[in-house]
Amino acid sequence: MSDTSTGKLKLWQAIAISVGFMAPVLAMSLNGIGVAGLVGPSVPLVFVIAFAGVGAVAYGFVRLTSYFNHAGSIYGLVGITVGPRAGFFGGWALLGTYVFFAACTMASCGVFLEAFFVQAGFGSGPPWLLVALVAAAVVLALNIRESAVAANVLLLIGGIGIAAMLVLAAVILGKAATGNAPNGQTIDVVSTFTPGDTPFGTLLAASVFAFLSWAGFESCSSLGEETEDPRRNIPRAIAGAVVLGGLLYVLMMFAQTVGFGTDAAGIEAFAGSTSSITDLAAAYVGEWFAVVLAFCALAVALASTIGSTAAAGRLLYALARDGFGPKQLGELNGHGVPGNAVIAVVVVSFGLCAGLGLTGQGAFDAYYWYATIAVLCMLVAYSVASAGVIYFTLKGHNTIPKWEIAIPVLGIGYLLFVFWEQRGTEFPYTLFPWIAGAWCLIGLLVVLLAPSIAQRVGAHLTEELGDPNEADASAGKES
Length: 479
What we know:
The protein has 19 helices and no strands. The protein is an all-alpha fold. Helix 6 crosses helix 13 and helix 10 crosses helix 11.
């Protein structure tokens, strides 16, 4: 992307983009509940396992972005290393991820606004589709301005949400350590960080829920062209988002498990919760703090929509810039931002919400249905990125030690397992793998049936990123 923007993103702003997409407050409110029902008190251990799996996947992004940066993220990273066809296919899968995530987080704004109204005693909130429309308007207003504006908003919202969670964790652990917990809960490190009687296969299967907490960690790579010293800062931002998320998630899952209690009654309460964070806030601090966290969840849902639409807009811009789609989508506005592409993404994402809302589906259905489809597309995109770093390493035109291919190989294995565990067991979830597969199939058909697009993509990527056989050997050392 050209330097027409008024300022470049700093390292901490790039981290804010990825963390904003990940939406830690939402992840901590929902993702531990399913894990508790499967593994009992070993919830923190499951998040440690998922942390390792995500790290293996993130390795590919860290390595490739230390050599190349592109608004298309996987599209550019894989396109310049493996080839334009693979790059287009991976980028198309990632575009599906971002658009469906934008739709599901728009819907979640309606979910959490209603939860806030209920917690605050205001009764039910406005119709969720109206809330999603307002969220779309706010997101659009922020994302068509300089990237730093959206990044600063994400940093503010994310920082407040993380601070509120850390306060809750400190109160829970403090009361448990001093014998002042509501039901006599105590600090229990052994039960929480050992498998107990739970088979390892069950722990690994439960880690699927935890893995979703990191979804979108790579989103800052789409803003590499708008970031200062991207070969240095983007790899650090990706690694920083993964590590920050991992430490936070493990701590909060430990605090939540201790907060509910590691006995049978505590695990039953944890697994039966609808929002573990707000339930614990009410029990350990007071109803007023539950209201605060409900509002934080609403704000973080909006922040995640900002992050996903920002990343999707850059990716769509990159595709159009290289000849796929209307040329207007490949243009920058006066702020140096791909405004037309961002507008298109926001409109399509809200259209997905409207498609369910106008047929009578609730916000929860819209959230979970679109989130599931997004995750399935994401697993395909992440696998392509991992294959890209393996290919790039084996070519030998870089400083990456050959033995390191073991890391992305493990990452691909973990992604395949997660994909298998995401298959639906009842309608309409049985349809979602087919919907995600159909989206990815469209990308595959484009590269197979329209070779001229692949040729244009290859020419543009070589022009923008250079010859991968002549990649700067010093780049890999900077990160």
